[in-house]
Design goal:
Layout lengths: L10 H7 L8 H6 L8 H6 L5 E5 L4 H6 L6 E6 L6 E3 H14 L5 E3 L5 E6 L4 H10 L16 E2 L6 H17 L6 H8 L23 E4 L13 E8 L2 E9 L18 E7 L3 H15 L10 H8 L1 H12 L19 E4 L5 E5 L5 E2 L1 E2 L2 E2 H11 L3 E4 L5 E6 L4 H10 L9 H5 L1 E2 L14 H17 L9 E4 L13 E7 L2 E6 L10 E7 L1 H18 L6 H7 L9 H4 L5
Parallel strand pairs: 6-7, 7-8, 18-19, 19-20
Antiparallel strand pairs: 1-2, 2-5, 3-16, 4-5, 4-13, 8-9, 9-10, 11-12, 12-17, 14-15, 16-17, 20-21, 21-22
Bound molecules: siroheme and iron/sulfur cluster.
């Protein structure tokens, strides 16, 4: 393998290298109060500490008219491997959202954690101190590092699940930046760092973000193939014995730039449990050393992998670890949606999955979700689990405690029967008003759009059928739309590209079917294709599979070659 060109480094590379292990001049900048934001360089560096500088895009015009700067504020994303948060922690997070944010809500994300949008700079340290007190942090939830690790929750197989969760925490800690800059900047107010070098990530950190997920087949709610490393649990007699590893997944593209493509991760082999840390470290350091540091659009592991080839990448892993990757154990995926409602675990405890519209924990007129969850958290001294589908599970409920929780559910109307199967399965990213990269609405568009789509489905008598539909406000694809059966990707206000041919299990990338479509045109496209599906489908054939079988779309097999090829 040859090392990538070290001249022409991108600006971010220079910034990282010269940042004194992620400090920059943040400590001075925090104190500047003539602006609500940080200077550009520091606004990039605070990402490594789990924060994004944003402003409310709905208010931009009005504030400009009044000669005010945009309403600059900070979004904070917590580190929460496997999405587990104790109810005690939840009560505190709920309070932070109420008292320290502009929006008074908590946003669950597709990577099993939560974001607090709208924190003012002056309140940041206080927020971090509260997090620290309840043993949470936001280290490395953004920036060119390993992000929050997903781990699929599974009360039907608790022994294997707890083992997987254990590994998600262990890998997360192992791959964290070792710089003490987070503690120094946000918790302590004084220099503490004796560390001169980042042993794993390197002083320039990774070329780009890096993502890891763990799941137990047949469940693929984490969309394992969208990650830089996917660990697929292999069990014997319900005990975790090792992992199949897939690498180099990633979903984002840039509109009209055919050098960018979404890619499904490739299988590289099976490993034993005691090899997980070594192998993960080897993969991340290969990406550190060979990833593109000149062009951020070509810097994810997926491009490194395609550049060097799977066989060379595999050889390099084996060389660095002195281990041999074993052949993949057979596995299948057939499920990735959440099981809504109560489920009894094999441990005889109860688990309640609640639907959270767009992952937004807020109080609406007909559903007081934020208040209701707070009430539950106060009487149920256990944990919540945030799912990769932006929903929440109340875990570990004893038969005795169940009626009390049911009564809170009823009082605050936390299970709203009007939410149809399509609404419960669809996902949208955040998009407007907080996302600076949004090109079209996503979160705010999803429900009104589904209301229209459902009318059409009722008319065509397919409202009981299930289709995985996801919307992203831009081609970064944060709702993992590029692994859905109907994928809508924002192009401009009110216009979306329609991609079809993904499958129900999340194991196939869809392909562009209609460009720049408005709502009417999207509905027309779905109407036409779904009518054909319902008429000619084979028994139990999902929509995405029908689209491929009937040659409406040729399947994407190797993204680098065929994502842009003709239908
Ligand atoms: Fe994402 C950037 C929101 C999951 C691909 N993503 C952003 C930013 C931070 C915009 C920015 O850079 O300023 C968005 C903040 C919006 C806001 O106001 O909150 C944002 N991404 C989200 C979340 C909150 C979407 C959601 O509705 O849940 C998810 C947070 C996950 C987390 O907790 O860590 C989120 N983002 C994803 C995923 C899905 C996943 O990881 O499972 C993807 C596609 C998978 C992948 O990485 O390939 C994703 N987000 C991106 C990208 C494109 C990365 C690339 O390879 O080019 C960007 C832009 C970037 O990094 O330059 C991005
Ligand atoms: Fe923002 Fe685009 Fe991600 Fe949506 S997909 S949250 S619009 S970056």
């Amino acid at each position: 393998m040859s090392i990538s060109n070290s001249s022409n480094l991108s600006n971010n590379e220079i910034l990282k290298k010269e940042s004194s292990l992620l400090r920059g001049s943040i400590s001075k900048d925090i104190k500047v109060n003539i602006t609500g934001g940080f200077n550009y360089n520091n606004s990039q560096l605070i990402r490594f500490h789990g924060m994004y500088q944003q402003d409310d895009r709905d208010l931009r015009k009005e504030r400009l008219k009044q000669k005010l700067e945009p309403l600059v504020n900070i979004m904070l994303r917590c580190r929460l491997p496997g999405g587990i948060i104790t109810t005690k922690q939840w009560v505190n997070i709920n309070r932070l959202a109420t008292e320290n944010t502009l929006y008074n809500n908590i946003r669950l994300t597709t990577r099993q954690t939560f974001q607090l949008h709208g924190i003012l700079k002056a309140n940041l340290k206080n927020v971090h101190k509260v997090l620290n007190k309840i043993e949470l942090d936001s280290i490395a939830t953004a920036g060119d590092v390993n992000r929050n690790i997903l781990c699929s929750f599974n009360p039907k197989n608790p022994i294997s699940y707890f083992n997987c969760w254990f590994w998600s925490k262990k890998i997360s800690v192992h791959l964290l930046p070792k710089s003490k800059s987070y503690a120094e900047l946000w918790l302590k107010d004084k220099k503490t760092d004796l560390i001169k070098a980042e042993p794993i990530l390197g002083n320039s950190y990774l070329p780009r973000k890096f993502k890891i997920a763990i799941t137990i087949p047949p469940v693929n709610d984490v969309d394992i193939y969208s990650n830089d490393i996917g660990l697929i649990a292999v069990n014997k007699l319900n005990n975790l014995i090792g992992f199949n590893i897939v690498i180099g997944g990633g979903l984002s593209i840039v509109h009209n730039d055919k050098k960018t493509y979404p890619k499904k991760a490739n299988e590289i082999g099976y490993i034993f449990l005691n090899e997980v840390i070594k192998i993960s470290e080897a993969i991340i350091t290969i990406q550190r050393d060979f990833g593109n540091r000149n062009n951020r659009k070509a810097a994810r592991t997926k491009y490194t992998l395609d550049k060097v080839s799977i066989s060379l990448f595999r050889k390099e892993i084996e060389k660095r670890t002195n281990l041999k990757l074993k052949p993949i154990y057979p596995y299948i995926f057939n499920k990735r949606n959440d099981n809504f409602g109560w489920l009894k675990g094999t441990d005889k405890r109860w688990y309640l999955t609640l639907f959270v519209q767009n992952g937004r924990i807020t109080d609406c007129q007909d559903k007081l979700l934020k208040t209701g969850l707070e009430k539950i958290a106060k009487i149920h001294n256990k944990s919540f689990c945030i799912t990769p589908n932006q929903n929440i599970i109340i875990t570990d409920v004893s038969p005795k405690a169940k009626p009390k929780i049911e009564s809170i559910i009823k009082t605050y109307n936390l299970i709203n029967r009007k939410e149809s199967i399509h609404k419960r399965k669809a996902m949208a990213c955040v998009s407007f008003p907080t996302c600076p990269l949004a090109m079209a609405e996503a979160e705010r568009f999803l429900m009104p759009f589904l209301n229209k789509l459902e009318k059409l489905m009722v008319h065509n008598n397919i409202h009981k059928e299930s289709i995985v539909l996801r919307i992203a406000g831009c081609p970064n694809g944060c709702s993992r739309a590029m692994l859905s059966e109907i994928c809508l990707v924002g192009k401009s206000i009110g216009k979306y590209n329609v991609y079809l041919g993904g499958n129900y299990e999340g194991t196939r990338i869809p392909k562009l079917y209609k460009e720049n479509a408005n709502v009417k045109e999207i509905l027309k496209t779905i109407n036409k294709t779904s009518k054909g599906w319902i008429k000619y489908k084979r028994p139990n054939e999902p929509y995405g599979s029908f689209i491929i079988r009937t040659n409406l779309i040729k399947p994407v097999i190797n993204s680098a070659n065929d994502f842009y090829s003709l239908l």
